[in-house]
């Protein structure tokens, strides 16, 4: 009987660990406080910037705001998101302009249904960029690492016709070239 119980517990443990392990395998969807991910896909005339971070990095919480001070934090974050190119500066010579932003974050868009304290929440968005000279899009400067102390590491992936590049940036190293 003891043996069966043990096997059962091991089985349950293995199951409960499965989702977090799967999450860690995909670098773009890992939810690790202090870390954020950025992917830049460069096409012939346009580029798409995809960003993902635990909300905790920006707000210090990941559920719907509880009071005025927290509401103010969310408001400020939404204001900042009106121009993400102030967070991520791209090669000026490329002359990229931010187009539509697709924001996926129920907590800050007010669509959060539950207020479970234990639930994690992300800030995710895709931003379309129109670039006059996409061939000159050869570098980025992750200024948000200095603007938001909650982000310690930003994993960046750049995909373009010439190949794929990856680098982890930190507050004392915010530049990446490819
Ligand atoms: Zn979290």
Summarize the helices and strands and which ones pair or pack.
Blueprint: H1 2-25, E1 35-42, E2 46-54, H2 56-59, H3 68-80, E3 88-90, E4 96-104, E5 122-131, E6 139-142, H4 144-147, E7 153-160, E8 163-169, E9 175-177
Parallel strand pairs: 1-7
Antiparallel strand pairs: 1-2, 2-5, 3-6, 4-5, 6-9, 7-8
Pfam family, one: ZrgA
Keywords: Signal
Protein name: DUF2796 domain-containing protein
Total domain modules? 2
Major sheet strand order: 4-5-2-1-7-8
Q: What percent of residues are in strands?
A: 25-35%
**Main β-sheet: number of strands, strand sense, barrel status?**
6 strands, mixed
**Topology as a string of helices (H) and strands (E):** HEEHHEEEEHEEE
**Radius of gyration from CA coordinates:** 19 Å
Count of DSSP H/I helices: 4
Number of strands: 9
Mean pLDDT: 85
- Globular, elongated, flat, extended or rod-shaped: what is the shape? globular
> What are the low-pLDDT stretches, counting only 5+ consecutive residues below 50?
11-27
By helix and strand content, what is the structural category? alpha+beta
Pfam family, one: ZrgA
Signal peptide: 1-22
InterPro entries: ZrgA-like
Organism: Undibacterium seohonense
